[in-house]
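Side project, low priority. Logging it here so it doesn't get lost.
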Amino acid sequence: MNFFESQEQARRKTLLLLALFVLAILATLLLVNLACYLLVAVANHAPHLQQQQPLSFQRWLASPPSHIVNLTLLAVIIFGMLRQWLELRQGGQQVARMAGGIAVPMDTSDPAQKQLINIVEEMALAAGIQVPDIYLLPNEAGINAFVAGHEVNEATLAVTSGLLEQLSRAEVQGVIAHEFSHILNGDMKINLHLVAVLGGLMLLGDAGRFLMRSARHTNSLRGASTTFLAGSVLSIIGYAGLLTGRMVKAAIVRQREYLADASAVQFTRDTSGIGGALYKIAKNRQQAFLQHSMYAETLNHLCFGESVRIRWQSLMASHPPIERRIQAIDRSLLARLRSRDYKAALENTQTAVTSTSPQEAPVHDRTATTSQFADIGSTTSERFVRSHVGRFQPADLAYSQRLLHDIPMNIREYAHQPDQAAWLVKAICLLQQGQALTQQEDHASIGIPEAGLEPRVPKQLLDQLARLGCGYHFPLIELALPVLKRLPDQNRRGLLEDIRQIVQGTGNTGLSEYALLALLNVHLHPKAGHSVRIKHHKLDAVTHEVEILIAILCRFNANTPEGQRALYERIITPFSPAAQWPKIEQNTAKAFHLAIKRLRLTTPFLKAQVLAACVECIMSDGKIQTVEYELLRVIADILDCPMPALT
C-alpha cells in the first residue's frame, strides 16, 4: 500500500468512526433508559405508588420522561464533542499542552533533549516531511510518546521525561520511528477525531464526579443526598460511555500499532531499538502510564504504550499486549532480551552510540556529498520518483544523517535560534534568486530592514550557504521552520512580507522562489496546523488550477513559447483534452499560490495525479537536476505529500 492509498484509507475510516460513535451513543442511551426504567419500576411497586397496569420497557421508551432523558444526554454528548473539537482545532500543539507538555527549545543545551532533536530531524529529513514541533512531558517518569496533528506536515511530537532518561539512543530512535509511521500512515487525523467524538461520552462521567464532589460541600443532608445520587447515576452512565469508547478505540487503533512497529523496524533496520523500549515497558506495566495528566484516558490511543490501567485488555485495550508486539517484530527477540544481562548491554550500546553521535561526528567532505546532487537523471526514472512519495527507507535515514553531518554546526545553530532562523531563510531566498548583494567588510546587506533586528546577514553565512549548494537549501528551511512557527503572529507576518518583497523585488524571479514563498505562506500562516477539510473530490472541480500549475511549470522548463505550449498540451491532455493555454496574471507568484492552495483541498488520489503531472513536466528532458527535484519536493510538501530526498 502506497502513501496515497494509506491516506485515502484513513479518510474512509472517518466514516467507520462515525458509525461506531453512533452505535456507542445508542448503547449508552439504551443503558441509561434501562437504568431509569428499573428505578421507575421499583418505585411503582411501592404500596402508595402502585399502579394497576405495570409499566413495560417499550412504554417507558415511548414516554415523555424517556424523551427528556434522551434529549438531555444527547445535548451533553454533543456539547462535549464540540467543546473537545474546538480545543483541538489548533492541532497537535494543543494536544501536547493538554497532556502537560512544554515546548522543547530547539537551541536547548540539555544533552538528552539535543539528542532527541537530532533524532527527530534525521527522521523528518529522511521521510521528507516538516520537522514536527517537539514537546516534553516533564512530570511523567514513565516511557511514552505520541504524535498529534491534522496534517502530515503540521505534526507535534510529545515524549515523556522518562523516555529520555531510561532509553538508549537506539531505543529512542525506534520509538520515534514508530511515531513517524503513524504520521505517514494517516493515523494522526483519525486519532484526533477519536479524541473529539469520545469527549462527549467522557463528559458524562466528568459531570457525575463533579456532582459527587459537590455533595460534600452541601449543608443540607437531603440536598447532599440528592446531589450525590445524581452524581452517582451520571458516573455510572459515564463509565458505560467510557467502556463503549474504549471498545471503539480498540476496534480502530489496535491493528495500526502492529503496522507502526513493523514500519519502525523497516525504517531503522534495527529490531533491538523499538524491541528494547517495549521490553522495558513490559518489565513494569506502569512504565508507560501518564500519572500526572488528567487527559491520560482521552489520549491513551495516541500513545506508544497504554497510558492508563485497562481491565479486560483483550476487549478494551487500544494497544496489543506488549509481549505480542515484541514477538511480532521478531519471534526470538523476547527470549533474547530476557536471557541476557540487558543493563550491561545497554551501557555498552550507549557508550558506542555516544562515540559516534551525530552531534560529535566528524564533518564529511561537503564537496563529495554535493556531487551526489549533480545530474541524477541518468539513474532516476519518473516511475521511481512517483513511488518515492511517502516511502521511508533505511537508505533515506542514512542519507539524512550524512546530510546533517555535512551542515556546519554554526549554520544549524542559525536554524535553531529564534532571532537568526529568519536571517537564514532570507539568505537562502536571496541566493536562490541570484540577486546582487552589496558586500562590505563583514556583512552583506539584504536590502530589507527587519523591525528590531540589524537588517544584515553575515557574509560568512551567505558564503557557507553558497558553498553547500542548492541541495541543502530546502533541508535547512525544514530545520528552521519549527523555530519560525513559534514566533508571534506579527513577527511571522513581517517575515512573510520580507520574503515576498525579496521574491518580487526583481524581474529575475524563478519558479523555485514562487514555490518557496507559497511553502512559507502555508506553514507560517496564523491558521497553520488547523484541520484542512477536503472540498474537491473530482478532477473537474480543480481542472483550472491544474492547468495554471502545469502552465507555470512549462514556462520554466521549456526555452521557447512553442516548446512550452507543446509540453503543456502533452501533459494536460489526460486532465482536460480540450484545454487551452491559460491566461496567467502578471503576478505569477499569486497565480501559483492560489492554484496550489486550492489543490491542497483535494483527495489523496487527486494529489497523486497532480504530482505525477509535475514529475512528467520536470522530467520532460529525460533528466532531473538538483534544483528541479527540490522544487518537486516543495510542491509535494505544500500538497502535504512527503517526498524524501534522492539518495
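Brief comment: The beta strands are 102-103, 133-137, 145-148, 156-160, 438-439, 443-445, 456-458.
Revisit when time allows.
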